[in-house]
Write a structure and sequence with these properties.
Blueprint (H helix, E strand, L loop, with lengths): L1 E7 L10 H15 L4 E4 L8 H12 L3 E4 L14 H15 L5 E5 L10 H13 L3 E2 L8 H14 L6 H26 L6 E5 L2 H16 L7 H5 L17 H8 L16 H9 L3
Protein backbone atom coordinates (compact mmCIF):
# COMPACT_ATOMS: atom_id res chain seq x y z
CA UNK A 1 0.00 0.00 0.00
CA UNK A 2 1.10 3.55 -0.75
CA UNK A 3 0.03 6.42 1.49
CA UNK A 4 -1.05 9.78 0.04
CA UNK A 5 -2.19 12.96 1.79
CA UNK A 6 -4.58 15.45 0.10
CA UNK A 7 -5.61 19.09 0.72
CA UNK A 8 -2.17 19.90 1.98
CA UNK A 9 -0.83 21.70 3.80
CA UNK A 10 -3.21 24.05 5.57
CA UNK A 11 -2.89 26.82 8.13
CA UNK A 12 -6.29 26.25 9.72
CA UNK A 13 -6.32 26.66 13.48
CA UNK A 14 -7.53 23.54 15.28
CA UNK A 15 -7.73 22.40 18.89
CA UNK A 16 -4.73 20.65 20.41
CA UNK A 17 -2.16 21.34 17.68
CA UNK A 18 -0.96 24.31 15.65
CA UNK A 19 -0.53 23.96 11.86
CA UNK A 20 3.21 23.43 12.35
CA UNK A 21 2.62 20.83 15.05
CA UNK A 22 0.11 18.95 12.88
CA UNK A 23 2.54 18.93 9.99
CA UNK A 24 5.41 17.74 12.13
CA UNK A 25 3.33 15.05 13.83
CA UNK A 26 2.45 13.45 10.49
CA UNK A 27 6.05 13.61 9.29
CA UNK A 28 7.21 12.08 12.58
CA UNK A 29 4.77 9.17 12.26
CA UNK A 30 5.90 8.45 8.70
CA UNK A 31 9.58 8.61 9.70
CA UNK A 32 8.98 6.30 12.65
CA UNK A 33 7.60 3.62 10.36
CA UNK A 34 9.90 4.27 7.41
CA UNK A 35 6.95 5.10 5.13
CA UNK A 36 7.48 7.24 2.03
CA UNK A 37 4.28 9.13 1.17
CA UNK A 38 3.00 11.74 -1.28
CA UNK A 39 1.60 15.14 -0.37
CA UNK A 40 -0.97 16.57 -2.79
CA UNK A 41 -0.91 20.33 -2.47
CA UNK A 42 -3.93 22.65 -2.73
CA UNK A 43 -1.91 25.84 -2.92
CA UNK A 44 -4.55 28.36 -1.78
CA UNK A 45 -4.89 26.50 1.52
CA UNK A 46 -1.37 27.49 2.52
CA UNK A 47 1.46 26.80 0.06
CA UNK A 48 1.13 30.14 -1.73
CA UNK A 49 2.07 31.80 1.60
CA UNK A 50 5.60 31.59 3.05
CA UNK A 51 4.45 29.81 6.21
CA UNK A 52 2.48 27.22 4.24
CA UNK A 53 5.20 26.80 1.64
CA UNK A 54 7.59 25.91 4.46
CA UNK A 55 5.20 23.21 5.67
CA UNK A 56 5.04 21.65 2.20
CA UNK A 57 8.81 21.95 1.74
CA UNK A 58 9.33 19.97 4.94
CA UNK A 59 7.69 16.99 3.21
CA UNK A 60 9.94 17.24 0.18
CA UNK A 61 12.98 17.67 2.40
CA UNK A 62 11.99 14.48 4.24
CA UNK A 63 11.95 12.53 0.97
CA UNK A 64 8.22 12.50 0.27
CA UNK A 65 6.72 13.19 -3.15
CA UNK A 66 4.85 16.42 -3.90
CA UNK A 67 1.83 16.37 -6.24
CA UNK A 68 -0.74 18.82 -7.58
CA UNK A 69 -4.26 19.12 -6.13
CA UNK A 70 -5.23 22.47 -7.74
CA UNK A 71 -5.16 25.99 -6.32
CA UNK A 72 -8.55 26.21 -4.62
CA UNK A 73 -10.12 22.72 -4.85
CA UNK A 74 -12.90 23.47 -7.40
CA UNK A 75 -15.38 20.78 -8.41
CA UNK A 76 -15.10 19.81 -12.08
CA UNK A 77 -18.67 18.48 -11.89
CA UNK A 78 -20.01 21.94 -11.12
CA UNK A 79 -21.68 23.82 -13.95
CA UNK A 80 -20.02 26.94 -12.56
CA UNK A 81 -16.53 25.53 -13.22
CA UNK A 82 -15.42 25.50 -16.85
CA UNK A 83 -12.79 23.19 -18.26
CA UNK A 84 -10.50 26.16 -18.91
CA UNK A 85 -10.88 27.44 -15.33
CA UNK A 86 -10.11 24.01 -13.91
CA UNK A 87 -7.02 23.60 -16.07
CA UNK A 88 -5.75 27.05 -15.08
CA UNK A 89 -6.03 26.02 -11.42
CA UNK A 90 -3.63 23.17 -12.12
CA UNK A 91 -1.15 25.37 -13.96
CA UNK A 92 -1.21 27.99 -11.21
CA UNK A 93 -0.60 25.37 -8.53
CA UNK A 94 2.17 23.86 -10.63
CA UNK A 95 3.99 27.19 -10.72
CA UNK A 96 4.24 27.05 -6.92
CA UNK A 97 4.93 23.38 -6.23
CA UNK A 98 7.41 22.89 -9.08
CA UNK A 99 9.96 24.71 -6.94
CA UNK A 100 9.62 22.20 -4.10
CA UNK A 101 11.89 19.21 -3.49
CA UNK A 102 10.09 15.97 -4.30
CA UNK A 103 7.94 17.61 -7.02
CA UNK A 104 6.26 15.11 -9.33
CA UNK A 105 4.05 15.60 -12.40
CA UNK A 106 1.11 13.97 -10.65
CA UNK A 107 -2.39 15.40 -10.56
CA UNK A 108 -5.04 14.27 -8.09
CA UNK A 109 -8.55 15.24 -9.16
CA UNK A 110 -10.44 17.28 -6.56
CA UNK A 111 -13.22 15.23 -5.00
CA UNK A 112 -11.89 12.43 -7.28
CA UNK A 113 -14.31 13.76 -9.92
CA UNK A 114 -13.05 13.68 -13.49
CA UNK A 115 -15.80 15.66 -15.23
CA UNK A 116 -19.58 15.42 -15.48
CA UNK A 117 -19.59 15.68 -19.26
CA UNK A 118 -17.63 13.85 -21.96
CA UNK A 119 -16.15 17.21 -22.99
CA UNK A 120 -14.75 17.91 -19.53
CA UNK A 121 -13.57 14.35 -18.99
CA UNK A 122 -11.87 14.01 -22.36
CA UNK A 123 -10.58 17.57 -22.27
CA UNK A 124 -8.86 16.92 -18.97
CA UNK A 125 -7.36 13.66 -20.17
CA UNK A 126 -5.88 15.45 -23.19
CA UNK A 127 -4.64 18.30 -20.97
CA UNK A 128 -2.88 15.94 -18.57
CA UNK A 129 -1.27 14.09 -21.46
CA UNK A 130 -0.09 17.31 -23.11
CA UNK A 131 1.45 18.50 -19.84
CA UNK A 132 2.99 15.10 -19.02
CA UNK A 133 0.87 14.72 -15.92
CA UNK A 134 -0.07 11.37 -14.42
CA UNK A 135 -3.58 10.87 -13.08
CA UNK A 136 -2.79 10.15 -9.44
CA UNK A 137 -5.56 7.61 -8.94
CA UNK A 138 -6.86 6.48 -5.57
CA UNK A 139 -7.87 2.87 -5.03
CA UNK A 140 -8.41 2.86 -1.25
CA UNK A 141 -10.60 5.83 -0.37
CA UNK A 142 -11.43 6.83 3.20
CA UNK A 143 -13.77 9.35 4.80
CA UNK A 144 -11.21 10.52 7.33
CA UNK A 145 -12.36 14.10 6.65
CA UNK A 146 -15.81 13.30 8.06
CA UNK A 147 -14.45 11.86 11.27
CA UNK A 148 -12.01 14.76 11.47
CA UNK A 149 -14.97 17.16 11.41
CA UNK A 150 -16.47 15.30 14.37
CA UNK A 151 -13.14 15.35 16.21
CA UNK A 152 -12.71 19.10 15.75
CA UNK A 153 -16.34 19.72 16.72
CA UNK A 154 -16.00 17.80 19.99
CA UNK A 155 -12.64 19.33 20.96
CA UNK A 156 -13.81 22.85 20.11
CA UNK A 157 -16.65 22.46 22.60
CA UNK A 158 -14.41 20.84 25.22
CA UNK A 159 -10.63 20.73 24.67
CA UNK A 160 -10.35 18.12 27.44
CA UNK A 161 -13.02 15.78 26.05
CA UNK A 162 -12.26 12.07 25.89
CA UNK A 163 -12.00 11.43 22.15
CA UNK A 164 -11.01 7.78 22.46
CA UNK A 165 -14.34 6.68 20.89
CA UNK A 166 -13.53 8.78 17.80
CA UNK A 167 -10.07 7.26 17.58
CA UNK A 168 -11.49 3.74 17.78
CA UNK A 169 -14.17 4.59 15.21
CA UNK A 170 -11.54 5.99 12.88
CA UNK A 171 -9.31 2.95 13.12
CA UNK A 172 -12.31 0.66 12.54
CA UNK A 173 -13.35 2.78 9.56
CA UNK A 174 -9.93 2.51 7.92
CA UNK A 175 -9.82 -1.24 8.56
CA UNK A 176 -13.25 -1.79 7.02
CA UNK A 177 -12.39 0.26 3.93
CA UNK A 178 -9.06 -1.52 3.52
CA UNK A 179 -10.58 -4.98 3.76
CA UNK A 180 -13.43 -4.13 1.38
CA UNK A 181 -11.17 -2.55 -1.25
CA UNK A 182 -8.73 -5.44 -0.99
CA UNK A 183 -11.57 -7.90 -1.59
CA UNK A 184 -12.68 -5.75 -4.53
CA UNK A 185 -9.20 -5.87 -6.06
CA UNK A 186 -9.35 -9.67 -5.98
CA UNK A 187 -12.81 -9.65 -7.51
CA UNK A 188 -11.81 -7.30 -10.33
CA UNK A 189 -8.13 -8.09 -10.86
CA UNK A 190 -7.73 -11.53 -9.34
CA UNK A 191 -4.82 -10.35 -7.22
CA UNK A 192 -3.63 -7.95 -4.59
CA UNK A 193 -2.85 -4.63 -6.23
CA UNK A 194 -0.62 -2.03 -4.55
CA UNK A 195 -3.40 0.05 -3.06
CA UNK A 196 -3.12 3.84 -3.09
CA UNK A 197 -4.62 5.15 0.15
CA UNK A 198 -6.26 8.58 0.34
CA UNK A 199 -6.04 10.53 3.58
CA UNK A 200 -6.02 14.25 4.39
CA UNK A 201 -3.73 16.78 6.01
CA UNK A 202 -5.83 17.29 9.12
CA UNK A 203 -5.97 16.97 12.89
CA UNK A 204 -7.18 13.37 13.00
CA UNK A 205 -4.12 12.18 11.13
CA UNK A 206 -1.80 14.43 13.09
CA UNK A 207 -3.03 12.69 16.23
CA UNK A 208 -3.43 9.12 14.99
CA UNK A 209 -1.51 8.47 11.75
CA UNK A 210 0.97 6.48 13.83
CA UNK A 211 -1.90 4.26 15.00
CA UNK A 212 -3.27 3.87 11.46
CA UNK A 213 0.11 2.73 10.12
CA UNK A 214 0.58 0.39 13.08
CA UNK A 215 -2.84 -1.13 12.44
CA UNK A 216 -2.00 -1.77 8.79
CA UNK A 217 1.24 -3.46 9.79
CA UNK A 218 -0.61 -5.57 12.37
CA UNK A 219 -3.02 -6.58 9.57
CA UNK A 220 -0.04 -7.83 7.56
CA UNK A 221 0.04 -5.00 5.04
CA UNK A 222 3.36 -3.74 3.69
CA UNK A 223 4.10 -0.22 2.49
CA UNK A 224 5.52 0.84 -0.83
CA UNK A 225 6.18 4.24 -2.38
CA UNK A 226 3.49 6.03 -4.39
CA UNK A 227 5.79 6.00 -7.42
CA UNK A 228 6.18 2.23 -7.21
CA UNK A 229 2.42 1.74 -6.78
CA UNK A 230 1.62 3.94 -9.80
CA UNK A 231 3.91 1.76 -11.92
CA UNK A 232 1.50 -1.16 -11.50
CA UNK A 233 -0.49 -1.90 -14.70
CA UNK A 234 -3.81 -1.28 -12.95
CA UNK A 235 -2.99 2.44 -12.72
CA UNK A 236 -2.52 2.63 -16.47
CA UNK A 237 -6.21 1.88 -17.00
CA UNK A 238 -8.55 4.63 -18.20
CA UNK A 239 -12.15 3.98 -17.09
CA UNK A 240 -14.66 4.89 -19.77
CA UNK A 241 -17.53 5.85 -17.51
CA UNK A 242 -19.37 9.02 -18.44
CA UNK A 243 -18.25 10.55 -15.17
CA UNK A 244 -15.21 8.59 -14.09
CA UNK A 245 -14.07 9.22 -10.54
CA UNK A 246 -14.05 8.03 -6.94
CA UNK A 247 -11.88 5.02 -6.22
CA UNK A 248 -10.37 3.53 -9.36
CA UNK A 249 -11.62 0.14 -8.18
CA UNK A 250 -15.20 1.39 -7.75
CA UNK A 251 -15.06 3.00 -11.17
CA UNK A 252 -13.85 -0.25 -12.73
CA UNK A 253 -16.55 -2.21 -10.93
CA UNK A 254 -19.32 0.01 -12.24
CA UNK A 255 -18.04 -0.27 -15.80
CA UNK A 256 -18.12 -4.04 -15.48
CA UNK A 257 -21.65 -3.97 -14.11
CA UNK A 258 -20.65 -5.07 -10.64
CA UNK A 259 -23.67 -4.98 -8.37
CA UNK A 260 -23.78 -5.04 -4.60
CA UNK A 261 -20.95 -6.75 -2.77
CA UNK A 262 -19.99 -7.32 0.85
CA UNK A 263 -18.99 -4.03 2.45
CA UNK A 264 -19.74 -2.11 -0.73
CA UNK A 265 -22.47 0.08 0.72
CA UNK A 266 -20.00 1.35 3.32
CA UNK A 267 -17.55 2.53 0.65
CA UNK A 268 -19.79 5.39 -0.45
CA UNK A 269 -21.47 6.45 2.80
CA UNK A 270 -18.94 9.19 3.70
CA UNK A 271 -18.53 7.77 7.18
CA UNK A 272 -22.25 7.82 8.03
CA UNK A 273 -21.99 4.45 9.77
CA UNK A 274 -19.31 5.64 12.20
CA UNK A 275 -20.93 9.05 12.78
CA UNK A 276 -24.23 7.45 13.71
CA UNK A 277 -22.48 5.04 16.07
CA UNK A 278 -20.69 7.97 17.74
CA UNK A 279 -23.99 9.83 18.14
CA UNK A 280 -25.35 6.86 20.07
CA UNK A 281 -22.35 7.25 22.39
CA UNK A 282 -23.29 10.88 23.00
CA UNK A 283 -20.77 12.44 20.62
Amino acid sequence: MALTIDDAPNLEQTPKLSPEQRNQAMLKALAKHGVSAALFVTANYAAKQPAGYALAKAWGDAGHAIGNHSMSHPDLHSDKVSLAQYQQEILDCDAIISTLPGYQKWYRYTYLREGNTPEKRDGMRLFLKQHNYRNAYVSLDTSDWRLNEKLVEVLTKNPEADVTPIKLAYLAHVRQRAEAYRALSWQLQGRDIPQVLLMHHNLINALWLDDVITQFKDMGWKFTTPAAAFNDPVYQLVPERLAAGQSLLLSMGRILGLGKFAGGERLVDDGDFEIEALKKQGL
